[in-house]
Amino acid sequence: MKLSIVIPAYNEKKTLREIVGRVLSVDLGPMEKELVIVDDGSKDGTRDILRELDGKEGIRALFQPRNMGKGAAVWAGMRASTGDVVVIQDADLEYDPNEYPTLLRPILDGEADVVYGSRFLGTPGGHRVLYFWHTVGNRLLTLMSNVFTNLNLTDMETCYKAMTREVVDRLDLQSKRFGIEPEITCKVSRMRARIFEVPISYHGRTYEEGKKIGLKDAFQAVWVILRFFRWEAPKGDVGAITLRRMSKLAPYNAWLHGRFEKHLGQRVLEVGSGVGNQTRFFVERERVVASDIEAHYVRELKTKFGNRSNVRIASFRFPLTDDDRADLLAERLDTLVCLNVLEHIEDDAGTLADFARVLPPGGHLALVVPAMPALYGTLDVHLRHYRRYDREALAKLVGDSGFAVDEVRYLNRPGVLGWWLNSRVLKRRVLPKGQLAAFRWLLPILRAEERADPSFGMSLLVLATRK
Question: Partner of 348 at 20 to 30 A CA spacing, among 28, 183, 206, 258?
Answer without folding.
Answer: 258
